[in-house]
Amino acid sequence: MTTSSSAIRVVTIAHNVFRETVREQVLYLLLLFGGIMASAFALLPQFTGLAERDLIPNVGTAAIEVVSLVVVAFVGANLINREIDKRTILPLIAKPLGRADFLLGKLLGLWLVLLVLISAMTAGLLLLMGLAKVALPIGAMAVSSAFLCLQFLLLGTFALFYGSFTSSLVASLLTFATYLVGHFSADLLQLGKISNNPATKRLTEILFLLLPDLSRTNLKNLAIYGDLPPSDQLLQSAVYTLSYTLIVLALTIVIFGKKEF
User: Fold this and answer.
1) Domain boundaries, the chain
2) How many other CB atoms are found less than 10 A from the CB of residue 72?
3) Calpha distance 219→143 (Å, rounded)
4) Which residues contact 218 (CB under 8 A, 6 or more apart)?
5) What distance in Å separates the CA atoms of residue 3 and residue 229, rounded to the nearest whole number?
6) What interhelical angle do 56-70 and 27-43 show, nearest 10?
7) Rounded to whole angstroms, how far apart are CA atoms 153 and 185?
8) pTM of the model
9) Which helix (H) or strand (E) holds 6?
10) Which of 15, 51, 103, 162 is the most exposed, fewest CB within 10 Å of its CB?
11) How much is the pLDDT for 233?
C-alpha cells in the first residue's frame, strides 16, 4: 500500500464521518448553543447589571466547551462500535485498508467536525457580544478556540481509545471522566505539594505525569479579558497536548489491531 493511496483512504473515511455527523447532529447542537445564549441574555441581566460584560461571555465560552464535549463523548465514542454493530467494518477491513488508516480517518473526521463547530460557535459568540456592545478581544478568543480544538483532539483520541475495547456507553462515560480528571489533575498535584505525607506527595506526582493535564488548553476565562499566557508557555502546552495525543493514538492502534470481529 503506497503512502498516497493510504492518505486517500484516510481522507475518504474522514469525509464520511464529517458528512454523516454534520447531517445528523451538528444543526441540533448549534440550536442548543443558541438556546443557551438566548437564555443567558434573557435571564442573567435580571440578577446583575454586569451580566453582559462579565457573565454572558463566560456562559458563552462554557457552552462552547460543553457542546464540544457532547460531540466527543457521544459521537467519538461511538465511531468504532457503530461500524461493528452495523457490520460495515468487515468489508472495510477486508479491503486494502489498514486498521491504523481506519482509526486515523475516524479521528480526522471527528476533529474536522469539532473545528467547524467550535469556529461557528466562537464566531456566533463574538457576533452576539458585538451586538450587545460588549467588546471581546478577537485575537485572544481565536487563540483560546485553537487550544480548545487541541483539547478536544486529545479527548477525541481518548474516545476512540475507549471505544476500541468497550461499549459505546462505557466509552462515553469514560470520556466524560477523562475530561473531568484532566481539568483537575493540576489541582491534584497542588494537593500533594501541601501534604505532609511523602508517599501521598509521590503518588500525586505520578498521577499527574500519567493523567492528561487539560488545564493547559483551558484559556477561555483568560481570553475574555485578553490576558493570555506567554507565547513560550502556549507553545509548550501545544507540544504537550499533541504529544499526549500521539501516545494515546498509538495505544489505540495497538489495541484495535488485535481486536477480533
Assistant:
1) 3-257
2) 28
3) 8
4) 147, 151, 183
5) 39
6) 160
7) 18
8) 0.89
9) helix 3-21
10) 15
11) 95
Model pLDDT for residues 3-24, shown as the tens digit of each residue: 667 788 888 889 888 888 887 7
Q: Are 36 and 121 in contact (CB under 8 A)?
A: no
Closest CA to 124 of 61, 201, 192: 61
Residue 257: CB atoms within 10 Å: 12
Matching residue, cell 450587545: 132
Instruction: Give the tens place of pLDDT for each residue, 91-140.
Output: 666 566 678 888 999 999 999 999 999 999 999 899 888 887 878 899 99
Taking the C-alpha atoms of residue 121 and residue 113, their distance in angstroms, rounded to an integer, is: 12
The residue whose grid cell reads 492518505 is 7
Question: Hey, what amino acid is at 161?
Answer: F
Identify which of 132, 143, 240 has the alpha carbon closest to the alpha carbon of residue 186.
240
Please state at what angle helix 138-163 crosses helix 168-193, rounded to 10 degrees: 120
| Grid cell digits, residue 254 | 495497538
List of residues 6+ apart from 234 with CB closer than 8 A: 143, 147, 228
